[in-house]
Every structure is written in C-alpha cells, then in structure tokens.
Amino acid sequence: MKVSRLTLILAALIVAAVVAGIMLGESLFDASQWAQAFSDPASGPGVVLWQVRAPRVVTALMVGAALGLAGAVMQGLLRNPLADPGVLGVSAVASLGAATAIVLGAAAMPGVVEVSALAGAGLAGGLLILFSARVRSPEALILFGVAVSSFAGAATALIFNLSPSPIATAEVMSWLLGSVQNRSWIDVAWVTPAVLVSGILAALAAPGLRMLSLGEETARTSGLPMVRLRLLALLAAALAAGAAVAVAGVIGFVGLAAPHLVRSAVRGDPARLLAPSALAGGLMLVTADLLARLIPTDQELKLGVLTALVGAPLFALIAWRAAREWRL
Predict the structure, then answer these.
(1) Single pTM value for the model
(2) 95 within 8 A of 114, measured Cβ to Cβ
(3) Which one of 24, 66, 131, 223 is at 20 to 30 Å from 125 when CA atoms are compared?
(4) Cβ proximity of 256 and 71 under 8 Å
C-alpha cells in the first residue's frame, strides 16, 4: 500500500472517530438540542459539544499522535521493534516532574504541572543526549534509559510514601493512570505546538533513521551527519513524549502499537513510518477515549488503564511473533 493512500485512509478514519467522539457521550440529545448546540454554542448543549467533548477529543488525538510519533522514532533509532516512548525513561521522568509539582501544591496554579512534566522530559532528554554523544551503541542507550526510568519510578514511589496529604496522593495516582477527561482548549494549545515541532525534528532525522536500518557500519560510512541526526531524533521523541505526559499523564502501549499497525504498509522503512504512526496513534487514542466514555461503569475508566488492558496482550503477541522470526 502506498503511503499516500495509507495516509488518506487513516485521515478518513480519524475524521469519523473525531465526529463520533464529539457526537456520542453520556448525555443523549434530542433533535431540538442538536439544533440548539449548532445554532447557539453558548447554550447548554453547545457547551457540552464544543467546550467539553470537542477539546477532549482533540486532546486525545494530539496526545495519541505524539505517542505514535515518539514510538516510531524510538523504534527506528534503537532498531528495536519493542521500543516505545517509555523505554528511555522520558515518560518516567516527566511523570516524576508532574508528581512533584502536585505534591508541592502547585497543581492549583494553571500550567505549573504541565511545565514541570515538560521540564522532566527535557532533563531526561538532556541526559540521553549527553550519554549518546559518548556511547553510540543502541544497546547501551537502552540500558541507560532503563536505569533512568527505574530511578524516576523509585523517586515517584518515594513521593507517594512521603506525600503529606492523601488528597495529593490521590491526585498523583489519578495523573499516573492517564486521562483526557475534563481537558480544555488550553490543553490542546499546550500539546499541539509540541507535536508539530516534534514532527519537524523527526522529519529532519528521517534520513538517519533510514540509514540506521541498514546497520551501524553502513550508517557511519554513509556521509550523513549521524551524530546530528541522532540528536534530532532524541529531541523529537523526548519532546513528543513529554508533551503527551504533560497533558494526559502516563498512557502506555500506544507508542508501541501504533508503528506496528502501519509498519507492513511502509515495508518497514523507518523514515516513511513516522507520519502514519502519528496518525495511527491519534486514531487509537480517540477510539480508546470514546470506549472509555461509553463502557457502562460506575466510574469512567482511566485512559491509561484501558490502553494497558488492550496493549498488554498486543505486546505479548508482538513478542511471540518476533520470537518465531528469530527461530526461523
């Protein structure tokens, strides 16, 4: 399948999912309420549609796109189909930054939690860039990322342990479970520029990702500025993952699964994989959020919980298929 055709199919599915996400919900409108929502956005039905559902759906779309893009970049950079945005510790350190801000009582100030999460992602990205400048082995980078992720996870657990308030602890837990509930157009404004910048950085790094798929030796002799391209890839992945965590908390498996859904259509080319992965990630999260709202439960399922329930079996399936290929 050509990439242009794949992009059009994914775009059409996204439009359908976004329309469904805006139209469907717990509140069922009759014909007069639908007419009122479209004719008077300030009315009750209009507020539900355009100030509650619409920003939530767009936030899910942009967060999913960020995670899908970050996953594609990580898998290309590390030449590992099981890599995702959390493998290098960016998501864990961003979560640590957000959790610290919440426990310190800064959540009441608009934007502080988001900035703290982005600062955490920037710190993790900076550490990875410094490490990759000295050690070029993808295996060593993965091990360093695992160490960073483990330390950030332990620090977050320490915050839980030392939290002075059960309310703050509950807020941190809610954040770590991941959700786009009660998001506004301000949240859309937070994540959208980060996704666009990440997309530009990833596009600039694409030639390096394609060359890395041919092997480290080939990449070194290609004449491409591989150090700069690796730097751009790390920046793209860190910014995208950090922005996603800053707005929606920790949402797993989207970055892992989205590239795999479209990989065969681009014949495994890591450069051509970037845009379809972002679109697939956005489609996945909009659909998952719609399911989270429509599943009849007493309390709405957290988005991170739902993606983990679906993503964990998918992860096992990918690992099983990879094991079969290795045996062959």
Answers:
(1) 0.88
(2) no
(3) 223
(4) yes
For residue 315, CA distances in Å to 206, 255, 275 come to 25, 11, 22
CB 117 within 8 A of CB 246: yes
What pLDDT, on a 0 to 100 scale, did the predictor assign at position 219?
67
Q: Tokens at residue 180, please?
A: 């786009």
Q: What residues contact 254, with CB distance under 8 A and at least 6 apart?
A: 64, 67, 68, 71, 281, 284, 285, 307, 311
Check: CB of residue 138 under 8 Å from CB of residue 83.
no
What's the pLDDT score for residue 144?
A: 85
Q: In the chain, where are the structural domains located?
A: 3-327
Q: Report mean pLDDT in 10-residue bins for the chain, 328 residues.
A: 78 94 82 86 86 93 95 86 78 88 78 84 83 76 85 87 76 82 88 93 90 73 76 89 88 86 82 92 93 82 82 72 56
What's the fold here for domain 3-327? ABC transporter involved in vitamin B12 uptake, BtuC (1.10.3470)
DSSP state of 49: I
The four Cα atoms 54, 250, 240, 104 give a dihedral, to 10 degrees, of: 100
